[in-house]
Design goal:
The strands form three sheets. A seven-stranded mixed beta sheet has the order 4-10-9-8-7-5-6, sandwiched between helices. The protein has a four-stranded mixed beta sheet with strand order 1-2-3-13. The longest helix is centred in the C-terminal third of the chain and has 24 residues. It has two domains: about 160 residues, Alpha-Beta Complex (Aspartate Aminotransferase, domain 1), CATH 3.90.1150.10; about 240 residues, Type I PLP-dependent aspartate aminotransferase-like (Major domain) (Aspartate Aminotransferase, domain 2, 3-Layer(aba) Sandwich). The chain is globular and about 60 Å long. It has 14 helices and 15 strands. Helix 7 runs parallel beside helix 8 and helix 12 packs parallel to helix 14. By secondary structure, the chain is an alpha/beta fold.
Length: about 425
């Protein structure tokens, strides 16, 4: 190994077994279905290297965490410079970088946004928006999509596809607090909102864990109109779809919706320092005036994290960044369609910018192809709620040459997968 932080005598198999023993036994066993579980060693740009030396082109990017690639040099430099003055800070005090980040973040979110409540992850930020909606409206019910994922937090776990996991941990709330409706069904949404008892619609703008199902044209504006009619707030969960991934700063912009609250995380960290946020419109955030400790987090809005997030937003606001997203998205759409024609096993391409899901003609097609991508040198991962879909997510700074490389590795994996299917 060329990094002093990784002991030269470290054996991958021994580390994997130690992780299974002390950290995540079931997760290790699950990853073994794809082959040897990867252990990230060196990482740079589009790539990370497994501890066994294998180089992998990363098109999972941990749900958008590596939105600017691995160890982006500008983000690293910002963190290094910030560490000369800042540490985590004191969450009780006003803060220079935290205040500046809130100013920038509220300015780039559509709608009349005024406040940013900082958390360590998206799941915590989801909790903040649900609490805010309930406080503002005096209602408890939250309407969310059956196919969505809002993190493993206390409230978010009950909203969407992992609701059963809340019951598993005996953490589900009273019946009726959460109402789960099908994604992209405006008739069911209208019926759910008609009772006038919902505090908010919590919308993962493109449900990632369900394989990036795409909304119909006009769906979200109609949902927002129904929310306004019935006194219900609209919360945009943009943890995976925001920060430039669709070619707009936020997916809700492209869908023509101004949310009452928006949640961001993952990529806001630059993949370097945890930071997430709930961005609130002024009209819904009365509690911030009434109780300054209504939400409190020692590490929420850590000052070094805010320094990193400011650099991330600076990079995203450069015209060339989103221009690149749009150009490579169009290139990928054309090339993926050509691959689809050569490989009938690939039956559907779901795409909005660099948010891409590849659906295969087998209930476990995404899992099967993921195993083969690992062998071909591509790190991709199936959708958790629909194993027929492979998530295919580039970082925002990729070039067309990078895309050609990743597509070549994908096609190699498809050929390997199809060969194995024929030999079964």
């Amino acid at each position: 190994m060329d990094n002093a932080l990784i002991p030269e005598n470290l054996v991958k198999d021994e580390l994997v077994e130690a992780a299974a023993k002390y950290v995540c036994p079931n997760r290790v066993e699950t990853f073994k279905m794809l082959g040897s579980p990867p252990v990230m060693a060196r990482r740079e740009g589009n790539y990370f290297w497994d501890l066994d030396g294998r180089k992998l082109f990363d098109v999972h990017i941990n749900g958008g965490t590596y939105n600017l690639g691995h160890r982006n040099t500008e983000v690293i430099a910002a963190l290094t410079e910030g560490a000369a003055l800042y540490d985590i800070g004191n969450h009780h005090f006003p803060s220079i970088p935290r205040t500046r980040l809130a100013e920038v973040l509220t300015s780039v979110v559509p709608g009349d946004m005024q406040y940013a409540v900082f958390t360590t992850c998206g799941a915590e930020a989801i909790d903040v928006t649900i609490r805010t909606a309930r406080k503002h409206t005096g209602r408890r019910k939250i309407i969310a999509f059956k196919e969505a994922y809002h993190g493993h937090g206390g409230l978010g776990l009950q909203a969407g596809g992992y609701a059963d996991l809340a019951s598993y941990f005996l953490s589900d709330g009273p019946e009726g607090e959460f109402m789960l409706v099908p994604f992209d069904d405006i008739d069911v949404m209208e019926e759910a909102l008609a009772a006038g008892d919902a505090a908010a619609v919590l919308a993962e703008m493109i449900p990632a864990t369900s394989g990036f199902m795409m909304p119909s044209e006009g769906y979200y504006p109609e949902v927002k109109k129904l929310c306004e009619k019935n006194g219900t707030l609209f919360i945009a969960d943009e943890v995976q779809t925001g920060l430039g991934r669709t070619g707009n700063m936020w997916a809700c912009e492209g869908y023509g919706v101004e949310p009452d609250m928006l949640v961001t995380g993952k990529g806001l960290s630059g993949g370097i320092y945890p930071v997430a946020a709930a961005v609130l419109s002024g009209r819904v955030a009365e509690w911030l005036h009434e109780d300054g400790w209504g939400y409190s987090s020692t590490f929420g809005g850590a000052e070094l994290g805010c320094v990193v997030a400011l650099k991330v937003l600076e990079i995203l606001q450069r015209p060339k960044t989103l221009k690149n997203v749009r150009e490579v998205s169009a290139f990928l759409a054309k090339e993926l369609e050509a691959i689809k024609k050569r490989h009938p096993f690939l039956v559907e391409i779901r795409q909005n910018g660099l948010v891409i899901g590849l659906k295969f003609d087998d209930p476990y097609g995404g899992v099967m192809v993921a195993a083969c991508t690992f062998e071909s040198g591509l790190w991709a991962f199936p959708a958790g709620f629909d194993r027929s879909v492979l998530q295919f997510k580039m970082n925002l700074l990729v070039t067309k040459d990078d895309c050609r490389e990743a597509l070549g590795l994908l096609e190699n994996a498809l050929e390997l997968c199809e060969k194995r299917m024929l030999n079964q």
